[in-house]
Amino acid sequence: MAAADQEPHVSAVRPRSYQDESYLHGFLGTVGDLQKAGAFQDVVLEVEGRRFPCHRLVLSAASPYFRAMFTSDMAESRQKTVVLQGLDSAMFGEILSYIYSGTLHVSLDKVQPLYKAADLLQLDYVRDTCNSYMAINIERFSCVDLYKFADVFSLDIVLTLCLQLIQRNFAKVASNEEFCSLSVNQLTEIISHDELDVKEETTVWEAVVRWVQHSREDRLHHLPSILPHIRFNLLTSDDMAAILKHPLVTEDPGSSAVIRNVVQEGNPNLKPRLGMMTEMVLLSKAKSNELLFMNPREGKYIRCRYNLKDLPHDTDVTVTSDNNIYVLTRERDSSKQLSMFKYNHAENMWEDAGMSSVSESLRLGNNMNCYDEHLVEVDQSLYYLAENIDEGVVSMRKYNRHTDQWQECSQLQFDSSTYDFSAALSCSSHLYFLTTTEMHRYDPSQDRWYKRIPPPEPNLEIHTAVVMGTEIFCTDFVFSGALVYDTESDCWQRLQGWPNPENRETNYHGTPCLFVLDNQLHIWFTCSYDDDDDEEDLVYVYDRSADTCWRDLNATLPDTEYYSYGRMCHVARIYLPYLKVQDKNT
Predict the structure, then answer these.
(1) Domain for residue 438, yes or no?
(2) What is the rounded distance in angstroms from the CA atom of residue 415 to the CA atom of residue 440?
(3) Confidence at residue 101, expressed as pLDDT on a 0 to 100 scale
(4) In this predicted model, what pLDDT tens digit does every residue of 453-495 receive, in sequence order?
(5) Is 36 helix (H, G, I), strand (E, B) or coil?
(6) Which of 100, 194, 408, 578 could disulfide-pair with 32, CB 3.0 to 4.6 Å?
(7) DSSP state letters, 260-298
(8) The domain that contains 424 carries what CATH number?
């Protein structure tokens, strides 16, 4: 058959489904109208003596609880009136309103009984909504009462948030009467955490005493199981002596021996509480075996001198989310051998981290001068980055603590033609690699690099960078301005209100350095007056809510020249008695 005579091609017509949104909404509205009019109701639910005429079909469609009740051989499936136990009549009215309208009204005073009713009736949406409402309004509730409620119903997110709130305000919470209503398991859960914000461990002991004495006869036998969670190793000898003489310890013949044994032995491995620790910036003295632990906000400056062989040379340093300080060091007599050291807080000394050497999994060139190296933690995993400046390649390894091996990750290509600075930073479960002209993000879940918006001012020679929240802040060598990168929106902006000390010129001697203390951005820099050779170290703190933004802390800093320990200015939580007890401060 000629082409002109061929039959025209008819494409197959596929069936389609259409959804009438107005019918869906209108149907629910009609059901609600029938309920209000009392039409076609075939069952009466009785709660606390109050009667609720309803429709079996509607109840069964909304709730697995009612579906099982009305479609089984249960007696309720045949009864005209069903009595429901364990429900509040007012809350059941709210539940029925939701079932017939799809609208749920939640408030602080009724969210808990509403959740309890929804849990019994197996209404997932109501439970989830109440759960979210409690989580976002956590500070408006009595934290102990909500903590107990979340514990009973296994509301993990609310439970965690309540625990954090109690930890931050422990002294105040423990002095309230409701604290004594905690169960023994809830009490031990709270006092066992490192994050308890208490200045002294005696605060924890006094809280336990108050809890026991609230119902002494019923609770005294719990004391031996509670005491191991008190950190007696952090108490002074006078405090220990006072506890051993306390009536709870001395007067009960059945448990006093056990109690005295627990108190006297303690657990030397228990860490200081969060409230006992001070955030300190780690600085090093050039060509020295000295470190400076610095907190200019509190005016604390502690110098520690170590044996030269015991203080690892810093190729790079990182402070992990669980407050471990790791130092990556390259042996002075070997261009390729890398070692990892870990800071022992209790002993104020540096120890071999006990990790396999990252060098074993690398094939770097002979010229180590062409490499910059970084150590950074992301989601509790350590990453090592070696950037070949000549070739514009970043090689990366991830440490697997289970196998004690460094695993190869995806390489990154970057433009090394304009290279003069780089930083590797962890933010929101991602790793960011920043240069003066580029920004890259690594996604550990995908083992993949993504190019992001580059810094908008390529002439700003970036020298220091730091993460605060979901933002990355950076500034240049001469302290002329700062940029801030929003990791969530992938956008940059210039930081406003940059400090400009009058008649002073910024000098580069390892500064400026950005760091974060107490969730606030700080900058430390060295400057001198125009006609004066004397130098002065200054620390400014940034406050977006203030008109001037940057405020001079007027800190009196040591007159010795220090540098950041590692490529960036690192901050760790330090228990100051650990530094002083070792008698290594000067």
Answers:
(1) yes
(2) 11
(3) 85
(4) 999 988 788 889 999 999 999 988 777 778 999 999 999 998 8
(5) helix
(6) 100
(7) HHHHHH--TTPPPPGGG-EEEEEEEETTSSEEEEEETTT
(8) 2.120.10.80
* Residues whose CB falls within 8 Å of the CB of residue 101, separated by 6 or more in sequence, listed in order: 28, 32
* Domain presence at residue 149: no
Separation between Cα atoms, residue 388 and residue 395, nearest integer Å: 8
Which single residue is written with the structure tokens 């930083």? 423
Q: Are residues 188 and 115 in the same domain?
A: no
CA atoms within 13 A on the CB side of 397: 21
Total H helices, total E strands in the chain: 17, 30
What six digits make up the tokens of 6? 């061929």
Cα of 282 vs its chain's centroid, Å: 22
What sign results for the dihedral spanned by CA atoms 272, 277, 282, 283? Answer: negative
Written as six digits, the tokens of 373 are 């190296």
Longest dimension (CA), the chain: 113
Whether residue 482 contacts residue 464, with contact meaning beta carbons closer than 8 Å, is answered with no
How far is 42 from 52, CA to CA, in rounded Å? 11
| Terminal CA-CA length for the chain | 104
End residue of a domain, out of 243, 265, 287:
265
| Number of domains forming the structure of the chain | 3
**Cis amide linkage into residue 268, ω under 30° from 0:** no
Asked if 494 and 476 touch (Cβ cutoff 8 Å), the reply is: no
Across 44-67, b (16+ Cβ under 10 Å) vs e yields ebebeeeebebbbebbbebbebbe
Name the residue among 356, 326, 320 with its Cα closest to residue 338.
356
Q: Give the pLDDT confidence of 418-440 residue by residue, as tens digits.
A: 777 889 999 999 999 999 899 99
